[in-house]
Amino acid sequence: KPYERRFAMAAMKLSNESGIPIAFHCPFNTFFHYNEMLQMGMDPNRLIICHFEKQYTRMSEDELFFYADKIVYSGSYLQLNDFGTKYHSPKAQSAFRLLKKLLDAGK
Q1: Residue 37: which residues within 8 A CB-CB, separation 6 or more?
Q2: What is the DSSP string of 54-92?
Q3: Cα separation of 95 and 84, whole Å?
Q4: What local confidence, expressed as pLDDT, does residue 82 receive?
Q5: What pLDDT score was predicted for residue 58?
Q6: For residues 38 and 23, what is the distance between their CA atoms, to the nearest angstrom?
Q7: Rounded distance, CA 95 to CA 65, Å?
Q8: How far apart are CA 44 and CA 85, in angstroms?
Q9: pLDDT of 25
Q10: Alpha carbon distance 49, 31 (integer Å)
Q11: Could you tell me the CA-to-CA distances from 76 to 2, 17, 28, 88, 107 in Å, in that order?
Q12: Could you tell me whether strands 22-25 and 77-78 are parallel, antiparallel, or unpaired per DSSP bridges?
């Protein structure tokens, strides 16, 4: 949406000028939007991708790891929710498995 792109551009400009990080809340199609931010000139080292685990219903765990690995490898951060609040939920369990896989891979 055009207004979302304007907000992203403004946040990116502020981050690039001031050095402050951006917490990017995009629970769906995250990797697509992440790449858009990088193409617009965002420094990946100042980008925090929030709610990444919410995509667990939209892709396999292997795909989730593939995209998470690419994001982390580029220097960005992943933020995962629901630790401790809904421990037995499918989303939390998927997030735990993703975190373990990333840690096992040395990320």
Answers
A1: 8, 12, 24, 47
A2: GGGGTS-HHHHHHHHHHHHHTT-EE----TTTSTTSHHH
A3: 11
A4: 66
A5: 80
A6: 14
A7: 10
A8: 29
A9: 82
A10: 9
A11: 24, 18, 17, 28, 11
A12: unpaired
Tell me the C-alpha distance between 77 and 43, whole Å.
12
The one-letter amino acid at 48: I
At 2, the amino acid letter reads P
Distance, CA of 30 to CA of 95 (rounded, Å): 15
**Token couple for 12:** 């990116």
Residue 84's pLDDT is 65
**Cα separation, 52 vs 25, whole angstroms:** 9
Residue type, 20: I
Bridge-partner residues for 77, per DSSP? 48
SS3 50: strand
Q: Tens digit of pLDDT per residue, the chain (107 long)?
A: 778 888 888 988 999 899 999 998 877 788 888 898 899 889 999 999 988 877 777 888 899 899 999 999 999 998 887 666 677 788 788 888 888 999 999 87
